[in-house]
Design brief:
homodimer, eight-stranded mixed β-sheet
Chain lengths: ~600, ~600
């Protein structure tokens, strides 16, 4: 619904051929000015679009000269008649008309902006962040913010229809650090004490379930004081959800439904039912707990195959003894890779964080020949037999590695993605959305050797594995699940523990003593005394999902006023030094 | 839409006579247990309602005894058949049926809660805040949270339909304290520097207008580190809105529309068009800038009336000379007040913060007689003449005071409210919603004598008063407006300054020098160089509005997890002492 205001009867995106003959008033920014002797044109821009204003020297010298005196980004108001254009622009909705301007008002002048306000701007990243209010004027950015709002609206629609209640939880809470560092807020009323900003509303939403609210959601800011790296922001937005009286299956069905609703509503895509892939299988077949399944390229394990056992290849023969596995992938259609290209793949798996020794290659050439980097140890029949295990056909390239299992899976997981990028298998408009289920409950911290939780200490163990909690904790699966979209973890959640004794036991397993449990989580453990219902939920990472739909590189591209990689808002200049009076009020001194 | 889950086919509020014969499964909390020898009943409660479970000793001894062993707030699951009740309860939607239980599972036991989970609970305020998760189980509280969600949904509906875009602004911003104190967040990455939590997104929403977003809204948490008193919370929620290319009239029409939409949708009330009362008139007639107009009772000024001038009352005769005014109100129907009651009114205006000397009373008794506390100085004709000025009729009580104007208006404003309370004129289900417009731009700080802004330094002056900015700043009106609901300021807003020079001038008028302006507001002033559009907006106080509709005494009654009056979350125990390691990371020491 468009409402006319004091400054305009219409916006710059709404007029078309059906309005010809109407007298209208528009306001907006001068996007471009074109001058052809007697004729001048201004493209007037606002959030809704661009409308061409036309000035004719013959009709009105004064107006034409005023128009010519304007610069880019001037704010102006123009009244005039809608007429059909002679030179139509089919690319924009208003392209068939223009306004013959009869009155013109300069509302606010503009200095020359530090970069051009166009989708293909000439401004660098830092400059555009400093002048974010100008960057957002570029349709590319403003449309992303609009997309974001529409996606969140679609999420709310779905949840509102299903008895979920949006409930706000506080931002000034108690510091109960788990994993990441809390941002702290010093208390003035009680000097020396702090509130913390929530890393997530996890405990509060669980208390809302104890409170009987049954179905909760919240679009909520979360805060983590981490060392900024890659695509992270110190504050980010979650769609946070929780349900009572549910099994894992109920939660998966509900949020699979939400995801399909958003895809349909926003992208007009009908997603098929999501695959539910066990964590162990994800690692086994794709070397990742967030596999991108827009392409297949599964990992094939060869250790127990006769063709391998019967070979004369020393590396293969010693594998079992060395507690290594032999596995590979089929890079479909890559047989024609040059020596330089395959060398790059070898370097890729040898990179320090993957640390493999090398890569055995078997090329199934288009001419029917087979060629391997291990030709010395395999005859052609053997190579073809290996090829069968990968369903290799002409044009395929088999890549095989040997090492400890964890390293092999990780390296091959990375390698399949690397090849997908090179081969352009990651189509922007194709979608792979799936569930990963049956995550392990605990893992061993590589540095300390301690048992730590994989997700958070509130995840319920898998009922079948409760028996192993004391004897073999690392064998316990959790009722935890992630949703993975095109290789990105967009949702994480779990069925929670709702029994006080079990929760206590898990805390103890994680090395907390009674005192620490009481201090950090006493109020939560206490709440479980009074009839906590079974419950579970999840949280979607909204920023990343929007970035995915917006085809944006980074989440800061879909946030109105983001921080840079150093956690600074360079537009406002925050964080900054504050008045000494403010520090005195808080009783704070610094020591570095 | 209700979706069945693993633990239930229906919720506890949905079954009725049409379901008789169905086999269902419910889960919930034991609200009450009643035992009549062979028959036992459990009222099973969840967020949606209460359903009666019925157990018959004859049918199943085992089940009946299990049921009898349960306590209040036990979480149970019951399967059975829906049957028509013999003893129907017309007060609840499920009151015509009950469940003949065939299977029963104890999901989680409960200790005896510290107070009863009923609307009329026995728990005190502090106890209920400590166990907030139990307090929310009371339908009174959970329904308030649901009301809150519905109201916010209705606000979004209205705005979404009118091209407003919900945009999130950051919570970690630069400290630019105006008026209230900022909550600060120490930066670990840049020790000694701070982020601030926003007191409101004011500057950011104005930058979104500069950015061309045109129509913005956000349901947003705001933070103020004030000394807690009365009904305040350190974090509270606003519906924050801003529009470009608008006049004040456009903003008033838009948000009057929103308010009517919410009243209609939530309360099924059709509000008439809102009165637009000038600030000066609000003070003159009601002694308040947030008058409750559910009743009239206007202040009547008497100073220039002949009957006053011609009286022999020394207090009246000396008024003009003493720069005092003589004004009063008509307390309709209060003529029968006892001496004790009128003495209370006298004490009321003499209270230190009102500081008046007394109250002249004229009673227009039901029997037709007139009686005044100033009978000595007025004959009956004179009293009746004064009565005419107040439209006094039989049964009315006129109350007159004499003092400096500001004190008189304030005291009579308070007095009309006090009488309204005593006379029960403030009906819960009647609504007075109006605009106050034409606020002054500046005021004189009573302590320092400095010129300070009334609202905030971004309010645009009234165009007619721009001429007085230098010569008579206190004469300038602002394009500022409040919306007042039943005597409470529920919205405040203004047309903003969009010209750089004017904004600079206003900052200077408020005593800031160039350096301070640059440090605190440089990024904003700078943004105005690049074509800022005319814009204006407002913010609704959501907590209070919900409290009004919920008929709640305090805003903490409509917040899931509020702070107490000392700013503490007594459930979580926040703020609290943190690890010394956390302080070391921040480089913080305390000195008290």
């Amino acid at each position: 619904m468009y409402l006319s205001t004091h400054f305009r009867t219409h916006n710059c995106g709404i007029l078309n051929i059906s309005n010809v003959g109407e007298t209208v008033c528009l306001s907006g920014w001068v996007a471009t000015l074109r001058d052809f002797g007697g004729l001048s044109f201004i493209d007037l821009r606002d959030r809704y679009g661009i409308t061409q204003l036309s000035f004719n020297m013959e009709n009105n010298v004064f107006l034409s000269e005023a128009a010519r005196s304007y610069g880019r980004e001037y704010v102006i108001q123009a009244k005039g008649k809608v007429v059909e254009r002679s030179n139509k622009n089919p690319k924009i909705p208003t392209g068939e008309i223009e306004i013959l301007v009869e009155e013109l008002t300069l509302i606010n002048a503009s200095e020359t902006p530090p970069f051009t306000i166009e989708d293909n701007t000439d401004g660098g990243e830092e400059l555009r962040m400093k002048y974010r209010y100008l960057d957002i004027r570029r349709p590319l950015l403003s449309e992303r913010l609009i997309l974001r709002a529409k996606m969140i609206k679609a999420m709310r629609e779905y949840l509102d229809e299903r008895s979920f209640i949006e409930i706000e939880t506080p931002n000034l809470i108690k510091s109960t650090p788990e994993g990441a560092r809390d941002f702290l807020v010093p208390s003035r009323m009680q000097k020396g004490s702090f509130y913390a900003l929530p890393q997530s509303p996890q405990i509060m939403k669980q208390l809302l379930m104890v409170a009987g609210m049954d179905r909760y959601y919240q679009v909520v800011k979360c805060f983590r004081d981490e060392d900024f790296r890659g695509d992270r922001q110190p504050e980010f937005t979650q769609l946070d959800c929780e349900m009572s009286y549910v099994s894992q299956n109920d939660v998966l069905n509900t949020f699979e439904g939400l995801t399909k609703h958003v895809y349909k509503k926003i992208m007009n895509v009908d997603l098929p039912d999501f695959q539910r892939l066990k964590y162990a299988d994800a690692i086994k077949f794709y070397g990742s707990d967030k596999p991108d399944l827009r392409f297949d390229c599964k990992i094939v394990d060869l250790l127990s195959e006769n063709v391998i056992k019967n070979s004369s290849f020393p590396l293969f023969l010693s594998a079992e003894e060395n507690k290594q596995i032999i596995s590979g992938i089929n890079a479909n259609g890559c047989a024609a890779y040059s020596r330089k290209q395959t060398d790059e793949l070898v370097e890729f798996v040898k990179a320090p964080h993957r640390g493999l020794g090398g890569l055995i290659q078997i090329k199934f050439n288009e001419d029917g020949s087979v060629k391997s980097s291990a030709d010395k140890f395999f005859n052609e029949d053997q190579l073809r037999e290996i090829g069968l295990l990968f369903n290799a056909t002409k044009g395929d390239l088999i890549l095989i590695v040997v090492d400890r299992e964890a390293k092999v899976r990780k390296a091959l997981g990375d390698l399949r993605l690397e090849i997908a990028k090179k081969q352009n298998w990651l189509k922007k408009d194709s979608w792979s959305v799936l569930w990963i289920v049956d995550f392990p409950l605990f893992e061993k911290d590589e540095e300390s050797g301690e048992t730590i939780f994989v997700h958070h200490p509130f995840c319920a163990p898998h009922p079948e594995d409760l028996q192993y909690i004391d004897s073999e904790p690392l064998r316990c699966r959790a009722q935890q699940y992630d949703m993975v979209m095109n290789g990105w973890e967009c949702l994480s959640g779990s069925i929670r523990i709702h029994e006080r004794e079990l929760q206590n036991k898990i805390f103890q397993k994680l090395g907390m003593d009674e005192k620490e449990i009481e201090e950090r989580f006493g109020f939560m453990i206490n709440a479980f005394r009074y009839g906590a219902p079974p419950h579970g939920g999840c949280a979607f990472g909204i920023d990343r999902w929007v970035a995915l739909f917006a085809n944006a590189d980074a989440i800061r591209d879909v946030i109105a006023f983001p921080k840079n990689n150093g956690g600074r808002d360079i537009m406002m200049d925050a964080p900054s030094v504050v008045d000494s009076k403010q520090l005195k009020d808080l009783g704070i001194k610094f020591e570095f």
